[in-house]
């Protein structure tokens, strides 16, 4: 049975840039666009030519992002002037793009109040803009802004706006839930009515997430007949964001309700790269990835409770709606005081430790985990520290180095320029293969100074840790008062793309941090296959 084609339109570089705190540089836009093109995206909206120097530069030359059609965003012409005499429109038409996407008002209230023009003048602006763009020979589409609100207020006028663009030759008529307040059943009903006037293969959906329904609304629109979906990576967008393509893509490609009826341009390899792309974007924006994000989050395929872990060992489909490897993620069974022997065995198997389930060391290790979690450790969020704990319990972690002592100091002073600065210094003494070594380093804080000093000279192990970097640092106070216990969690990564987390606990925040740092380095040496001393 042949399947209908769905087209995906990414607007991360334009609508996603409306996110508070997000401002892409040109090179960042190009990196994202190359990733989108490689995975098989149909349309990439590069920005609004003329709105910023970055967006203008993006369209200053022709860009090749595979089969993706590079799209320039713009606004319909102003009322009271011709298309040829509208500087904004002409700037967009001059862009080196494969397609255009123009935003036009479709809510009568906005036309009269926000634009301050008559309803007929707005219709004329839509018609003239689409006609001018189509005449260039490039694919043209319109985003009918606030379409669902407009349809509920005045269905005849909202439809007339969509039909005007359709009649002038627009390839796509995109229905926008601009304030994100429409619910899925409303989207389905309204799209079903619109489809009576405009063929579904010419309709698109652009949903915002203000009510948490952007993905559901997009899927409802597809079920009702639209064949283009607009969205952003990681759901970026103004206010609460846009429909999240990272969630939509695997749903469309893997869920039988959609996969049996429709095909999309994303390749299997592109799908397997989804987790990487999602995290790469967060890294670019200097944001921590959402560990609970559907499909790609670090916790998306994590099981903690013992009874669930037992079921996963027998059949992963019990608690996993898709194979995690399909989207480039992985399964994890967390070890905690809530889990039991099954959770522990599952995690040991994942890290490659084959142990008989009746081995007495398993019970001792489980008791150790529970004792340490009672003391404040949390291994369900620090898999690397757990692996080291487990390997030590089973006698398989080399003593690569011994820390003999460390100290830190914080000094506030005037530098040579007469500026008041705070300087942190750390001294670390270690023994590597019987040889004592001392390293001194400065940092922008005591933990950074310790990290630099500890990794400054580990002798024969130095080549194994040169690409190690700390990517996140979290502190939690476990109880109040002057004798508070502190838990420090450190996330580390290397050039292979691996990311791991370690934990330290102590009444002293520096000591807790140092524990996590030592675990991070030791884990890196283990995973890199560093030779035992």
Automatic annotation (TrEMBL):
Keywords per UniProt: Amino-acid biosynthesis, Branched-chain amino acid biosynthesis, Isoleucine biosynthesis, Transferase
EC code(s) of this entry: 2.3.3.21
This protein's record includes keyword Transferase: yes
Domain of life of the organism encoding this protein: Bacteria
Reactions catalysed according to its record: pyruvate + acetyl-CoA + H2O = (3R)-citramalate + CoA + H(+)
Xref: InterPro entries: 2-isopropylmalate_synth_dimer, AIPM/Hcit_synth_CS, Aldolase_TIM, Citramal_synthase, LeuA/HCS_post-cat, LeuA_allosteric_dom_sf, PYR_CT
Gene3D superfamilies on file: 1.10.238.260, 3.30.160.270, Aldolase class I
Residue span, Pyruvate carboxyltransferase domain: 6-272
PANTHER family, per database record: (R)-CITRAMALATE SYNTHASE, ALPHA-IPM SYNTHASE/HOMOCITRATE SYNTHASE
Protein name per the record: Citramalate synthase
Organism of this sequence: Terrihabitans soli
């Amino acid at each position: 049975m042949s399947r209908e084609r769905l087209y995906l339109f990414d607007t991360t570089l334009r609508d996603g840039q409306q996110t508070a705190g997000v401002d892409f540089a040109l090179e960042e836009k190009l990196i994202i666009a190359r990733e989108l093109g490689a995975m098989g995206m149909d349309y990439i909206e590069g920005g609004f030519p003329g709105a910023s120097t970055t967006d203008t530069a993006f369209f200053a030359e022709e860009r090749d992002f595979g089969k993706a059609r590079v799209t320039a965003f713009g606004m319909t012409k102003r009322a009271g002037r011709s298309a040829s005499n509208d500087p904004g429109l002409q700037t967009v038409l001059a862009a080196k793009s494969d397609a255009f996407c123009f935003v036009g008002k479709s809510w009568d209230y906005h036309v009269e109040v926000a634009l301050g023009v008559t309803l007929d003048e707005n219709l004329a602006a839509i018609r003239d803009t689409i006609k001018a763009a189509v005449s260039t020979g490039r694919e043209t589409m319109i985003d009918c802004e606030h379409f669902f609100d407009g349809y509920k207020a005045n269905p005849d006028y909202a439809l007339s706006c969509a039909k005007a663009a359709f009649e002038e030759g627009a390839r796509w008529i995109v229905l926008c839930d601009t304030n994100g307040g429409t619910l899925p059943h409303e989207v389905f009903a309204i799209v079903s009515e619109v489809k009576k006037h405009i063929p579904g293969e010419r309709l698109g959906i652009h949903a915002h997430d203000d009510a948490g329904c952007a993905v559901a609304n997009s899927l409802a629109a597809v079920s009702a007949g639209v064949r283009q979906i607009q969205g952003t990576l990681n759901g970026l967008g103004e206010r609460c964001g846009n429909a999240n393509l990272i969630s939509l893509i695997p749903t469309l490609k893997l869920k039988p309700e959609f996969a049996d009826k429709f095909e999309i341009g994303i390749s299997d390899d592109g799908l397997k790269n989804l987790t990487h792309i999602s995290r790469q974007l967060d890294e670019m924006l200097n944001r921590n990835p959402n560990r609970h994000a559907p499909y790609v989050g670090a916790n998306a395929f994590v099981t903690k409770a013992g009874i669930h872990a037992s079921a996963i060992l027998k059949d992963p489909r019990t608690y996993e709606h898709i194979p995690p490897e399909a989207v480039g993620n992985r399964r994890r069974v967390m070890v905690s005081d809530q889990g039991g022997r099954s959770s522990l065995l599952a995690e040991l198997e994942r890290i490659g430790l084959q142990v008989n389930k009746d081995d007495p060391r398993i019970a001792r290790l489980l008791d150790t985990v529970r004792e340490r979690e009672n003391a404040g450790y949390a291994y369900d969020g620090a898999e690397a520290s757990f692996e080291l704990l487990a390997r030590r319990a089973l006698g398989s972690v080399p003593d690569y180095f011994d820390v003999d002592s460390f100290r830190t100091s914080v000094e506030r002073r005037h530098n040579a320029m007469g500026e008041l600065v705070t300087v942190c210094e750390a001294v670390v003494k270690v023994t590597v293969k019987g040889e004592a070594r001392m390293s001194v380093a400065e940092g922008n804080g005591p933990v950074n100074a310790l990290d630099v000093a500890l990794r400054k000279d580990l002798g024969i192990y130095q080549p194994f840790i040169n690409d190690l970097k700390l990517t996140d640092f979290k502190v939690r106070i476990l109880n109040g008062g002057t004798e508070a216990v502190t838990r420090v969690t450190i996330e580390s990564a290397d050039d292979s793309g691996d990311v791991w987390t370690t934990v330290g606990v102590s009444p002293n925040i520096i000591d807790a941090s140092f524990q996590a740092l030592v675990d991070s380095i030791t884990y890196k040496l283990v995973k890199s296959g560093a030779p035992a001393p």
